[in-house]
Amino acid sequence: MAKILITGVTGGLGGATARFLKERITVEDIAVLVRDRESDSAKALANEGFELRLGDYDNLEGLTTAFQGIETLYFVSANDIGKRIPQHRNVVEAAKKANIKHILYTSTVRKDESSEAPLHIVVDAHVQTENWVKQSGITYTILRHNLYAEVIPMFLGSKEQLLQSKTIYLPTGNGKTAFVPREDFAEAEANILAAPSNYENKVLEFNGSEQTSFEEVSKILTKALGHPIAYVSPEVGEFEQTMASYQLPEEIIGMLVMFSLGIANGEFEQKTDDLENVLGRKTTPISTFLEEVFA
């Protein structure tokens, strides 16, 4: 089988995808991109039999070298939103230079691509990257992700914090999200990588099987924790002032506002069966996910 390179392996998605893929094809056909061969995570991957390739999204020349001999590239979007555009340009350019045959890119679902949209800075980087991939002449599969279920505990804090406040306090209004646990994304994308020719030049919308509001999250957590958890959706100004009073960093407050308003505006209230079709089942229920995280 042709060689596959998986990026983002020291993060949650890439590492999980590599391990699911290892169950489907021989590990000798899988390489993984790391920035430091001597890191504990890189050594663990090497011990599992994955070939390590050294590269960094900031270094075009290094990426081009790392991509040599690779047929299929699993391109996980960069973590640093502010650096995504130059980093993603490097990845696509390196893929062209190295004669990559197929790129699978993890993008985002969206409803509003305008500059006035709350999530414009996030969406714009993905839109530009999708265009670069499509214009590269390389066979592509665009994987548009809904929000990770893992953002819920990130937004709410720890179980102890939640039990202390007994309140979900976010300006998400009545907006709903088709949350997907990271493991479901990884399993589906390993399925695609094991047979990429079935998904050539396709755009897939990966949404969860259910659409959930944070008011509904509060009800799930009330049952799971055995304590009443209220839901309050404040005005943005009040939310910002309250978070600042707890000495939360300004950039974190900005991120919470940006995604909360995106949820309130219905950016993530999406319904497609692409993910279910690739998984061969419904996605993990959010109640199951939350019970495992918080109970």
Summarize the structure.
This protein is of the alpha/beta class and 295 residues long. It has helices at 12-22, 40-47, 60-66, 84-97, 120-135, 151-156, 159-165, 182-194, 214-225, 236-245, 250-264, 274-279, 286-294; strands at residues 4-6, 30-34, 51-54, 72-75, 102-108, 139-145, 167-169, 176-177, 202-206, 212-213, 230-232.
Counting DSSP E segments of at least 2 residues, the number of strands comes to 11
- The total of helices stands at 13
Order of strands in the sheet with the most strands? 3-2-1-4-5-6-9
Helix % is 40-55%
Distance between the termini: 43 Å
- Radius of gyration (CA) equals 20 Å
Beta content comes to 15-25%
Determine the CATH topology of the largest domain. Answer: Rossmann fold
Shape: globular
Compute the number of structural domains.
2
CATH superfamily of the largest domain: NAD(P)-binding Rossmann-like Domain
- Uncertain residue segments: none
Give the biggest sheet.
Answer: 7 strands, parallel
Helix and strand run = EHEHEHEHEHEHHEEHEEHEHHHH
What does this structure look like?
- There is one protein chain.
- The protein has 295 residues and is α/β, with parallel strands linked by helices.
- The chain folds into 2 domains: 4-145, NAD(P)-binding Rossmann-like Domain (Rossmann fold, 3-Layer(aba) Sandwich), CATH 3.40.50.720; 147-179 and 207-270 and 285-295, UDP-galactose 4-epimerase, domain 1, CATH 3.90.25.10.
- The protein contains 13 helices and 11 strands.
- A 7-stranded parallel β-sheet has the order 3-2-1-4-5-6-9, sandwiched between helices. It has a two-stranded parallel sheet with strand order 7-11.
- Helix 2 (40-47) links the parallel strand 2 and strand 3.
- Helix 4 packs parallel to helix 5 (120-135) and helix 9 (214-225) crosses helix 13 (286-294).
- The longest helix has 16 residues, at 120-135.
- The radius of gyration is 20 Å and the shape is globular.
- The protein starts with a strand and ends with a helix.
- The mean pLDDT is 96.
